[in-house]
Each structure stands twice: as C-alpha cells, then as structure tokens.
C-alpha cells in the first residue's frame, strides 16, 4: 500500500505543479496530451482505492480549476465560477457524449448543439454593471482571478460601454484574449532586433501582455478578443438558447467568430471538426480544437456541473501536426541539478506557425527507445502545440552516413565521472557547486523567485560576479558588500544599494523555500513543502537519514535517495550548514 500511496501523492504533486506552471506562470512544461495521461492515471488509482482513508484529502487536485493567482495584481472574485472543460482527442468520445446526453433526456434528434472554435489564448471574465465595464479578470483558480482591467481596456474589441436595448444590470462576459499569428511574428522580430524577450508561442505572448504592469505595453501588442460564453446573464427577454444569447451579445457589440455550427447529431459535429482541421492553417490565430455545448439553457441547468466542469460541454482537441526533418547533431546539456539532458538538433521546420530546430530527448532511456542516429530522418511535432518533440525515427530512410550517438561517460564541464539515477533512466554529474556549468545554474536558481529571491540579481549580474571571483557558492551572496559590487561594471551605486538591501531582506526565508533553493535532484517546491511540514527545522532536515525520509508520506524511494546523496556530500553539507548560520529560516504551517 505504501508504494500505491506514494504513486498517488506523486501524481497529485505533478498535476498541482503543472496547473501552477500553465495557469499562473503561463509557462507550460508539459503537453495537454501528457497532462491528460497523468490525470487519467490518478483518476483510475483514486477510484480503485477511494475507500482507503489514507488517500482522502480535503482539496483533491482533480477538482482544481486553474491555479492560484500571482500577487502582482489585486484579487477579483467572479460572480459565477469559471469552470474548466472536459476534453478529448478521440472522436469516439464525442459520439459517446452525444449518446449520453440524448439517453438522459430520452431524445434522439431534438437536442441541439452549439459548436465553435477553441481559441488558444487566455480566458478572461468581464463584469459589466449598468452597461459599464467595471472589472476584467483572469480565470485564476476558477473563483478568484487577477484584476487586469487596465490592460483589458487597451483591447479595442472589448466594449467599455454596452450600447443597445435591454442591457442587463449585471452581466458577466467570458471570452478569449489572443494575438494574431501575423502580429506575433512581428512582435518577435521586433524583440529579436531589440534583444528583449522572445515569446515561444502566441498564447504566452497574449498572457504575458495581459499581465504587464504598464498598460502601454499591452496596447502595443495588438491583442484581440472573442466571446465564447457568459456567467451572470439576466435579460428582460427570456433567451433560453446559448446561440441566441451569443447573437444578443453580438448585437450589444461583442465580437463572435463566424466559424460556428448549430446542429443536432454527432455526425454533424464530426464533419464540422474535420472542416476546421482543414481550415486551421488558414486562420490568423491559433486554435487547439473545437468546443461542443448543449444549446438549450434549460437542459444545461438540468445536466448541471461537476466540481471541475459542466456536464453539458466538451472540447475535441486536435492532434499536433507531424513534420519530417533531419537530425544534424545531438548535444548534451548539464542542468541545475547536474542532470544530463540529450538535445536533438535538426534542420529548421515550421510547425503551426513556429520555426523549431531542436527538441529535448529528456533522458537516456528515451534516447535508447527512439534509437536516434545523427543524420536520421525523424517526424517532429509540438506537444500541446507548445513543446517540440520527436514522434518517431524513419528507420527505412537511414543511410550509410548515419552515426550512432555516444552517450558521454564524463561531465563535459568539470570532467567528473557521470553517475546514473537509481532507475538507470538518467545520468548526472555529482560535483554540484564544483562543476562550473552547475554552479552557474544553481546560483541563478538559488537567488530566483523559485529560491530565496534576491531581487535585482539577474543572470547577467551573477555571471559578472562569478567572473570577478565574488560568487562561488550561495554562501557568497551574503558576503557581498557595497564596495565589491561597485567594482563590477554595470552595477552602479543605486543598484548596489538595492542589491545589498534585498540580500538582507532575503535572509528571512521560509523553510520550504530554503530546501527548494538548495537544488536537490527531484526536490521542487511541492516536495520541499512536504519535507518542511515534517521536519519543521533546517537543522533536523540536514541531520535526517534514509529510513526517516523514506517513511514520510508523499516522499518516494528515489527522492529519498536523492536527498541523502545530496546531504552526504561533504561540500554540500558544508555549504548548507553555512547558509543555516547566515539565514533566519523559519517554518510556517499552512
């Protein structure tokens, strides 16, 4: 049972992390397909062991909608929750959805469905009082979002005042903010010329623009808006059709995209989906599928909701496009924790409007499974229309020039012999701060928001401080002085004062942030919170042993081995002990 418990806790933590990355930071690190696979695994396990009291938690991640907001903007409470959508890649699921709905109401042809595009942007909630826009908010956790009204007001397709007859006293509008493909390309070209941030895809560009503190920046991004629904909708006229409500919203000045369908059979839905698949490349904005909703508001209310999504709607998502290209090289990158990641480089190809030329192969096991050779032809796709991945190797096209990939035995940065992880899937350099490549990444992470957060110390300044010999380990952050900083080009008096003040401020750090900042393999913020809650003290944590840590609920064998391996390293233990002396590390139960 311990192994099952560990697996369920691990899946919950993974899903919580990916929700945070996608909804809060707009920085997805996993495809929708892989997320759904993790979620399906968890659903099956929780259903199988639902009667076990150990596995019951107050707020299961399966019921979570979105994620917590950032603390940059003020809170905005939605009048009605912004729920997620159940989704599928399988057409058979749409047929099953249709059959289930019609069986529920003992009807065959009388139930209508409204189908439209699933635009890949950022969902927002607009609240109007007496026809005047009073707030605009992101989805957030489904109940509370971030108030981004100032930025939303720069979008010309969002009405600031509703003009027309029978405008409700209170009206919630749900829609998607996005950036056109053509404007996205211009934005990135401009960014490259000015050496500023280049966005990986249009969704991230739209989300990042809406979260700018300066509305003038958002205005320059040429954001667009389409309505797909509503929350509170009260009207003098009884409008009991989703389609009719959208048509009314259009009369009031809200933009509705012309690609929609009102139908009553699954065959019509599938034909619409196939048609959109063909037309997808012609659209000047990104979509990742279609959405199907029961059109009748009365029937919607009868079907109701789960805690996460409405029972009367479903999204049918696209599979990513595969593009053929040729492998030119495979390199090996050293990550913050010393992990060696193979990266396949290939001839540049355009996938869904984005040019890609490399893809992470993640670990040694996947590299072996794919059987990639240099000069091989491969099929490449963007998982979730975001992350470049290799689908398959075209073995039949392999020629005599193909070269086998030799996995390194020694670290490319410090020459240390590489060690394998406990399940032989990954290799890593054990030298930690003694490895130059790791040292840079570890110092950047330690001082970042994910670590203890020293504001004003960006990557460029950290590199300068390393080159000047002022930074070798995290302990050196707390020996920096105003005079030392003044010696570094580009760090003036004002910035030096700011950095010193922020270093002093960062000395008060929560235990889980401290543990996370150490950069222990497989120990992110979620695991760090579990460790913090158990040990409640940094001293107790560094003096732990394998038996103790492996018995903590939610900490598996591999993570336990990573923690003990880190703490047994004399250099790591010396640095960690020095940090404990320098910092005020405190535990807060929450």
UniProtKB/TrEMBL annotation:
* NAD-dependent DNA ligase N-terminal domain segment(s): 3-451
| Enzyme Commission (EC) number | 6.5.1.2
What is the uppermost EC class here? ligase
**Entry-linked Pfam families:** DNA_ligase_aden, HHH_2, HHH_5, Nlig-Ia, OB_DNA_ligase
Q: Which cofactor does it need?
A: Mg(2+); Mn(2+)
Name its GO BP terms in alphabetical order. DNA repair; DNA replication
Molecular function, one GO term: DNA ligase (NAD+) activity
Under the heading SMART domains, the entry gives: LIGANc (SM00532)
Q: Which PROSITE patterns match?
A: DNA_LIGASE_N1, DNA_LIGASE_N2
Provide the residue positions that the database annotates as binding Zn(2+). 411, 414, 429, 435
Q: Which reaction does it catalyse?
A: NAD(+) + (deoxyribonucleotide)n-3'-hydroxyl + 5'-phospho-(deoxyribonucleotide)m = (deoxyribonucleotide)n+m + AMP + beta-nicotinamide D-nucleotide
- Indicate the residues that form the catalytic site: 118 (n6-amp-lysine intermediate)
Sorted alphabetically, which keywords does the UniProt record give? DNA damage, DNA repair, DNA replication, Ligase, Magnesium, Manganese, Metal-binding, NAD, Zinc
Q: Binding positions for NAD(+)? A: 32-36, 84-85, 116, 139, 176, 293, 317
Name the InterPro entries for this protein.
Answer: DisA/LigA_HHH, DNA_ligase, DNA_ligase_AS, DNA_ligase_CS, DNAligase_adenylation, DNAligase_N, NA-bd_OB-fold, NAD_DNA_ligase_OB
Highest taxon, organism lineage: Bacteria
Assigned protein family: Belongs to the NAD-dependent DNA ligase family. LigA subfamily.
Q: What does this protein do?
A: DNA ligase that catalyzes the formation of phosphodiester linkages between 5'-phosphoryl and 3'-hydroxyl groups in double-stranded DNA using NAD as a coenzyme and as the energy source for the reaction. It is essential for DNA replication and repair of damaged DNA.
The record's annotation in NCBIfam families points to: dnlj, PRK07956.1
Q: What is this protein called?
A: DNA ligase
């Amino acid at each position: 049972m311990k192994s099952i418990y560990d697996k369920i806790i691990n899946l919950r933590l993974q899903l919580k992390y990916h929700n945070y990355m996608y909804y809060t930071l707009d920085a997805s690190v996993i495809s929708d397909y892989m997320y759904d696979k993790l979620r399906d695994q968890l659903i099956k396990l929780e259903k199988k062991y639902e009667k076990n009291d150990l596995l019951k938690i107050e707020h299961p991640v399966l019921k979570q909608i979105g994620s917590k907001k950032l603390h940059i903007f003020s809170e905005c409470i939605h009048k009605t929750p912004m729920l997620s959508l159940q989704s599928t890649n399988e057409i058979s699921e749409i047929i099953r959805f249709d059959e289930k709905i019609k069986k529920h109401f003992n009807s065959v042809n009388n139930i209508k469905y409204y189908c439209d595009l699933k635009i890949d942007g950022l969902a927002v909630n607009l609240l109007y009082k007496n026809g005047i826009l009073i707030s605009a908010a992101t989805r957030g956790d489904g109940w509370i979002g971030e108030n981004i009204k100032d930025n939303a007001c720069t979008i010309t397709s969002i009405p600031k005042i509703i003009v027309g007859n029978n405008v409700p006293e209170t009206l919630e509008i749900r829609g998607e903010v996005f950036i056109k493909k053509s404007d996205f390309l211009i934005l990135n070209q401009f960014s490259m010329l000015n050496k500023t941030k280049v966005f990986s895809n249009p969704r991230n560009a739209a989300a990042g623009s809406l979260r700018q503190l300066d509305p003038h920046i958002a205005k320059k991004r040429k954001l667009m808006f389409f309505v797909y629904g509503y929350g509170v909708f009260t009207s003098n006229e009884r409008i009991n059709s989703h389609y009719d409500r959208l048509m009314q919203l259009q009369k009031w000045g809200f933009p509705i995209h012309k690609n929609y369908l009102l139908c009553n059979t699954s065959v019509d839905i599938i034909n619409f989906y196939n048609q959109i698949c063909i037309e997808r490349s012609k659209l000047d904005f990104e979509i990742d599928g279609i959405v199907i909703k029961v059109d009748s508001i009365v029937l919607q209310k009868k079907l109701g909701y789960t805690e996460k999504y409405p029972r009367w709607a479903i999204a049918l998502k696209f599979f990513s496009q595969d593009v053929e290209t040729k492998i030119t090289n495979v390199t090996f990158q050293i990550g913050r924790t010393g992990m060696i990641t193979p990266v396949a480089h290939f001839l540049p190809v355009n996938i869904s409007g984005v040019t890609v030329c490399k893809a992470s192969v993640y670990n040694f096991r996947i590299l072996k499974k794919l059987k990639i050779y240099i000069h091989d032809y491969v099929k490449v796709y963007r998982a979730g229309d975001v992350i470049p991945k290799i689908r398959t190797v075209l073995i039949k096209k392999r020629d005599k020039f193909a070269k086998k990939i030799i996995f390194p035995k020694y670290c490319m940065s410090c020459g240390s012999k590489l060690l394998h992880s406990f399940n032989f899937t990954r290799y890593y350099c054990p030298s930690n701060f003694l490895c130059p490549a790791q040292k840079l990444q570890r110092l950047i992470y330690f001082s970042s928001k994910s670590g203890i957060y020293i504001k004003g110390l960006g990557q460029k300044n950290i590199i300068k401080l390393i080159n000047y010999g002022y930074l070798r380990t995290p302990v050196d952050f707390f020996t920096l002085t105003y005079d030392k900083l003044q010696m570094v080009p580009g760090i003036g008096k004002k910035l030096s004062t700011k950095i010193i003040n922020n270093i002093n401020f960062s000395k008060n750090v929560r235990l889980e942030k401290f543990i996370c900042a150490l950069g222990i393999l497989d120990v992110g913020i979620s695991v760090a919170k579990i460790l913090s809650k158990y040990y409640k003290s940094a001293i107790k944590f560094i003096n732990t042993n394998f038996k103790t840590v492996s018995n903590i609920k939610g900490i598996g064998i591999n993570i336990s081995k990573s923690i003990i391996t880190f703490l047994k390293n004399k250099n790591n233990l010396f640095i960690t002990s020095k940090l404990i002396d320098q910092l005020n590390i405190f535990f807060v139960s929450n």
